[in-house]
Specification:
single chain; alpha+beta; Ubiquitin-like (UB roll); DNA polymerase, domain 1; 2 domains; five-stranded mixed sheet
């Protein structure tokens, strides 16, 4: 049994200790905005914030989360930075298929919380999630827009 802090709420889950956080979020808690992509922490579709850090949830076991605060796409707009990121994503019409976008938004939110006025190099360094549609220019433009 694990007590987790998910989106500002305490949630108790009864899962095996080595269960990836991704599956706890999606299957146990039914927070399906966080997506499964590759399962090896390469694509970033499963990105959530753990104590404010963009983290690939497919490779974090539930027992490793401990008392950390987990934020998912479902709650990103409750934060002013997250809300600005989502507004910029919509204004810039970033998504094509949209599958990777929840992870992209979470990564951008983490970046802008840490670096409110990022340089293009900061954006390139932080936005390492993969996008099969190739919307990287639109993603960078949306990050710059959210930072403005």
């Amino acid at each position: 049994m694990f007590d987790l802090s998910i989106n500002g709420r305490s949630r108790r889950v009864d899962v095996e200790p080595d269960t990836p956080l991704l599956w706890v979020l999606r299957d146990t808690l039914r927070l399906t905005g966080t997506k499964y992509g590759c399962g090896i922490a390469q694509c970033g579709a499963c990105t959530v914030l753990i104590d404010g850090q963009a983290t690939r949830s497919c490779q974090v076991s539930v027992d490793a989360v401990g008392t950390a605060r987990v934020e998912t796409i479902e709650a990103v707009e409750t934060d002013p930075v997250g809300r600005r990121v989502v507004e910029a994503w919509v204004a810039a019409q970033v998504p094509q298929c949209g599958y990777c976008q929840s992870g992209q938004v979470m990564a951008a939110t983490a970046l802008l919380r840490e670096t409110p006025k990022p340089s293009d190099a900061d954006i390139a360094d932080a936005m390492t999630n993969l996008c099969r549609c190739g919307t990287y220019n639109a993603i960078a433009a949306a990050v710059r827009r959210a930072a403005a």
